[in-house]
Amino acid sequence: MSDLERRLSDLETRPNNFPTNPEFMYSRSTVKPLTFDGLTSWTVFKTQFDVVSSTNGWTDSVKASQLVASLRGSAAEVLQGIPADKLADLTTIEKALEIQIWRQPPDAIL
After folding, report:
1. I want to staple 62 with a disulfide (CB 3.0 to 4.6 A). Which of 58, 68, 73, 110 is the partner?
2. Can you give the residue range of the structural domain that contains 79?
3. Of 90, 8, 75, whose CA–CA distance to 35 is shortest?
């Protein structure tokens, strides 16, 4: 057995339990979500948010966190009406935002 064959055999039988170095891991680029202030169209923002969350492969829990983090101004004030134990629930947050938009005077929605 040649030296090269012996080395190859050693590599094949050696366990592959090396710690993963984040430097060498493949990382797909992530798309950053926009911010929502309540002055722009909720429907447009929601569509963009859904595309970003799908592209980034977010779970519903991550979507909820990202949505909360993207809220600004009057849109962020909606969070005050949501119980603390529901702030990680995507459906609750989205419904609260939709309800708030319909409560605004028509000229505030435009």
Report:
1. 58
2. 3-103
3. 75
pTM of the model: 0.67
Does residue 38 sit within a domain?
Answer: yes
Residue 27 lies in a domain: yes
Looking at the 3D structure of the chain, how many domains does it have?
1
Flag whether 108 is in a domain: no
CA-to-CA distance for 31 and 47, rounded, in angstroms?
14
Angstrom distance (rounded) from CA 94 to CA 64: 9
pLDDT (tens place) for every residue of the chain, 110 residues total:
677 777 767 766 766 665 555 555 555 667 787 899 988 899 999 999 999 999 999 999 999 999 999 999 999 999 999 999 999 999 999 999 999 876 655 454 43
Q: Helix crossing, 60-70 with 90-103: angle to 10°?
A: 40
Kindly state whether residue 110 falls inside one of the protein's structural domains: no
R_g (Cα) of the chain, nearest Å: 24
